Fold:
Amino acid sequence: MGILKKHLVRICTASLSALSVAGCAQFSRDGGFGPIARTTQARIGKEVRWARTPDERAKSERQIAEILEHPLTVDDAVQIALVGNAALQASFEELGISEAGLVQSGRLPNPGFTYRHAAAGGVYDIEETLSVNVVALLAAPYLHHAEERRFQEMQSAVTLDIVQLAARTREAYYTALAAGESVRYREQVRAASEAGAELARRMRAAGNWSRLEDARERGFFDDASLSLERARLAETVARENLAQLLALASGSGSVRLAERLPELPAAVEEAPDVEKTALDDRIDLGMMRARMDALAAKLHLAKATRIVNVLEAGPARVRQGPGSEPYETGYEVSLEVPLFDSGEPRVRKAEAVYAKAVDEFRQAAIDARAEVRKAYARYRASHEIAVRERDEILPLRKSISQEDLKQYNASQISVFDLLADARAESAGVDDYIQSLRDFWIAKSALDTALIGPPLQR
Structure:
């Protein structure tokens, strides 16, 4: 009788624990989106909205329309993407799926009812049993905590989606802006080449120019024309890539960009604390920690239930004999006998999965440190390259053009030499535009690497 009482006490304790879990498992008002919105505001300084109702979608559309009324800055582009990108909104729905699993894990297992009836010659054999899976009750708190961790992991995964979308949008914006500037300077190069080709044609027609010299100038013009067409195509593609990320159904036609890329900052930022960044701030490493915690809980559960995996218990009543006989009352216990399966394979599997997660985390931490270091190196080098082109190469080419103009006015060089230097100066400006673009993309990549994995290239 003492053993029975102990079992009943344990069952009651497990039931009370499961009841407390069930009382806490309710759907939240915002679907768990609040922490994501706050993290986004803190990490990238932008608002993000889960448009679940027609009113919320209309609010997002109004906000996008207001932003599009003026030329876009990079911050404007990121903001539009975060409230309008449909793929991002779809990732938010994963929160609802995960939260449903969390709430479901807090529900008590349904009891089972068994009814057996047999009769012969007025003698009855009736058995009625109401049972509940005791192991499920015992495991309910563990499973619920695992689902909580899984839900938190999903929140982190959605936050990473936001960070990655912001990074792709910044890169697309800088690429589109640089492509537009490049087209304008390629047009200048083409205009200079066209002037040279036309002048060469007239001089050859007058008999003052050789066929080789004429062909050389026409070759410059043809090359400049092809380069301009390639630049225009690159601009079209870049603008459409940006419009795609902004989820604008009308395409790039509704997007007006700023006139030029932002100027270089006076100096680069100090190198980040790689250890702190990699181990404390990276969202992806936080997700892996949460996963290890969940696997540790699963391993603990596997060890706790390695012998008893199925245990059902509940009240029962039985009547055997004529219909006038009273029911006999009692209880029934159903237990899986661990004769062939002792549960060791499940424990070994859980141990291996947990060990694998630990090793993956160790490597991920090493990768994160390296990613931040490489991103900072690119950021610093791209700044140095752009500064040298702006402060050394461009002034040098400009001074050459000015000196050539003086010599041309003094009839010391030909107009073709002057046009060639004009082409070179315009091409140099275009090279600087690409370097400036590379710097801002490298800056965006560094900002991303401090939060999560950088974009795959």
